[in-house]
Amino acid sequence: MDKTTQVLLIEDNPGDADLVRLRLIEGKSPVNVNCVNRLADGLASLAQQTPSVILLDLNLPDSHGAETFRRVMEQAPNVPVVVLSGQDDEALAMKAVHLGVQDYLLKGDISSKHLERAIRYAVERQGLLRALEITQKQQMEFKNQFLSHVSHELRTPLTCIHQYVTLLLDGLAGAMAPEQSDHLKTVLKSVNQLHAMIRDLLEATRAESGKMRIEPRCVAIGELVQQAVAMLRPTAEEKKVGLEIGVDQRLPLVLADPDRVLEVLINLVDNAIKFTPAEGSIIVRANLVETDPGHVYISVSDTGRGINPEAKALIFDRLYQDADAVDNNRSGLGLGLFICRAIVRLHEGRIWVASEPGQGSTFTFTLPVYSLAKLLAPIVAHKGHLRPAFVLVRVDLAPLSNPPRGNWKETWQQGLEILRRCVYLDKDLVLPPMVASGAAESFFVVASTDLLRSGVMTTRIREQLERVAEVKGKSKITITTLPVELPPAKLEETLEQQIQTVADCVTEMILASRERKQLHAGKVARETKSKKSTNSKEN
Amino acid sequence: MQKAKILLVDDDPDLVRALRLRLRANNYEVATASDGYAAIASAQKEHPALIILDLGLPVGDGFVVLDRLQNIDSLAGVPVIVLSARDPQANEERALRSGASAFFQKPADNDELMNAIRLNIGLGTEQKAAWPS
User: Fold this and answer.
1) What's the rounded Cα separation, in Å, for the pair A455 and A477?
2) I need a surface site. Which of A275, A290, B50, B65 has the fewest CB within 10 A?
3) What is the value of ipTM here, to two decimals?
């Protein structure tokens, strides 16, 4: 070591600290010791500068045991840590080594030479580890690029095969004998399988490289379950497998990307059908769990042969393949559940499986409940009191042509972005978009102001929206404002209850306003309405 | 009634042959081009009602073609459907922003593609009235 070694010593016992400092200075190489006696001070120091090594006592006045090194490593993941351990907690020090600490020293047993060597080795090892990580990251990037390139190249010949097979099947190249047509249908089935695999390959690559994106909306999960089941019912019927829905009618709305969640549901139900023998049955449930009111639990249960315990731990991993499934020609790349897990995690939910061999399996995932009260809390209250008045602003963007011209999604997203910039961050809130009932998008803003003064804001919104040619040229903008009429507050109500009341009121107003718009939509609108109004009570 | 003409731009001759057959079966007249340069020349000569455009093309890729089309007055209003093997996440927005009306990744569903063609050809004629340019 030709440079001065910068040591951060986090130790609360002054005697131990002095001893370690003395031993460090006694050593041959130049050192600079910065000693602090609390974890908080250590973390503050790490935020300022990066030492060569951290010497860490695990039991400090403000932190104990494993928590101490966990927090240090969180703050400075690339700095080697050597734990200073008392005789009585060597087991803990050993555990720390397993969790990524470079070394540990017993306090009663520290010599200069010993300490110097421990530090040198810790620094070297950490450096090697870092180099390894960088290489691994480069390899991962290369692999992901390669996969994305391959999946593109595979599509070109696949497209050609697909086009000619469908050409023949559609009779565009002359009539086909029934038997020939049957054979070609088999080819088409394989083409579609291959297509799905290429898609999965790209999705998994995206999930792994963190490029997967979600666009959360306010979603009735029951509708997605129905959609997924409807799509897969023919497959289930063909295999003579029952497919039921058990969705709690009084479920709150969830905050989720509807397309992505549908993908998860389709994947789980499709898997369930694959692994359930004829005459078996599958049920898709969605419900609340008392112990976890912040999430909706969605599960897919089958009466298949179940999953053995070893497989349960691996089943969500990339490329996991059930050995029996391969034998039985139930093909796939083993990426489906990996992709499902990535999607669920992006929603900050969890996914797991419960199963006994021979008893069937239940896959469950969770999605966060859409809680308007939680979103509203920071803006409707000020210094512990509810603000005096609120209005609900509804901004409709309807495409001028049907179907919309160009990229309608980009147009309304741009509109939403503008809307977000038109409000006061501390007093107003643009609500997450609801699932649109058609091409038109409705956005809602809760603003802490009264009807009289809201005019300033709505004028600003209109001006800003119209300034952008993309929005103005492609959509009809309608802005309506209504006061939020709260019931008189009761004296004994907590602020939390008052915020809940605002949230309930706003929810009612939104649902009522959506209903008016959907009146002409007939039966579908009424169905959604009854479902949503039960939701609002739950919310 | 006169058939609507579609310009099909793709550098894979086998795919062009199959798609041409399908488009003709759907009662369209078809012109073809296999590179970016030929695509512009052909569009100017043929005045198609719609263009189906691949992105990976020799002599000026699909984006160059989109850009040129936007800058030629007589062609700026012609709807373009991009049909490409490229990843939509990286290319769809860019294509739509460059003036395409729709993006399909290969292999595309035939019914969906034919639907988009029908809608966009309809829209193209409507647009001339509603969007004087």
Assistant:
1) 16
2) A290
3) 0.88
